[in-house]
UniProtKB/TrEMBL annotation:
Protein name: DUF2634 domain-containing protein
InterPro entries tied to this protein: Sheath_initiator
Amino acid sequence: MANLFPDTPDMVWTDEPVAEELESGGAVFGRSWRFDFDKGEFVMSPTRKMAVADDKEAWVIWCEKAIRTPRYRHLIYSRDYGSELEDLIGGTSRALQESEIRRMVTETLLADARTQSVDQFVFAWEGETCRFSCRITNIRDEIETLESVVI
């Protein structure tokens, strides 16, 4: 019977970190699938295969999904994943709500080792709805702007 775990010369078994982990300060930037948050579905190629996201795009998708996912609601996620934005109570001052949005978003995104900083928040109010954007920087000093809404 063939060995279930073959040991061939091209296979390297080691407990040492992969070179990519060392270069990025211990965080692994991996590939992921592209996701269209407006449609709520994965992006498909013309041949109906899921489109692959590069390292930076995969990190940005993770950040956006983490902000949109309510913390503690889904057992599949750890207690460190997701945000508590839906728990913001209306009736408090806008300044307090903006402060809480800053805190919650920063806490949510810094849970990922790839995220270096979250800053430059901009808020726009439409009635009780708050639209905000912020600048995120990863440990490779790549910068992106995230936008979201709190109702």
